[in-house]
Input
Amino acid sequence: MNENLVIAGKNYSSRLLVGTGKYKDFAETKAAVDASGAEIVTFAIRRSNIGQNPDEPSLLEILPTSQYTLLPNTAGCYTAADAVRTLRLARELLEGHSLVKLEVLGDPQSLYPNVIETIAAAKILVDEGFHVMVYTSDDPVIAKQLEDIGCVAIMPLASLIGSGMGILNPWNLQLIMEHVSIPVIVDAGVGTASDAAIAMELGCAGVLMNTAIAAAQHPVLMASAMKLAVEAGRSAYLAGRMPKKLYSASPSSPTDGIIDAAGI
Output
């Protein structure tokens, strides 16, 4: 019943994690992140400037490490070696920062994860002291292997990255949650607030999203909606929904003491 999300021993009050890509400018990025209430903010180290390009605006100017937990990710990496190299650079630029998001893609069109390369990279990174949150398929066997390696969170896709198709296989997400004891955070495929609420109602520890907010007609408003959806879904999960009863209607009002019309 813990209301805090715990990642690598640190508590977070928000269970919504957000990305920083695809916004029109840094001002919109900042406004959307603030509206989301997110405390963990992810960014692609290969596409974001956090100091490696001193002549360009830095993401750290609007998202300081004193206020947010930054989560460098390996978006755009297709091999374990490339992913490991990228996160080593992130740790150097962020002065020893160890919490990272690992994703190794297998196909440039679907952006589906390459689980073989992901596992290989995870082993190296965990051995080097990284706290690895790992993007993967919705395979419960792979999820358990990644937990056994030492990853701190499993991040299965709900559907393809950027698709907005929502949760296509809720049963696999439930299997993953039964197989692992570390946080399961839905990553990829969320399109709107109801998708986020469903993920949380299933019992997921959190939801990570980027495109669903950044590609909305009003990103800041959508960020606020996602915040409320995650909170509502979590509350519904903790409350415990009523059982579904096919063809078994039940009146919502008490039936005791009803006047018998025939006896009047």
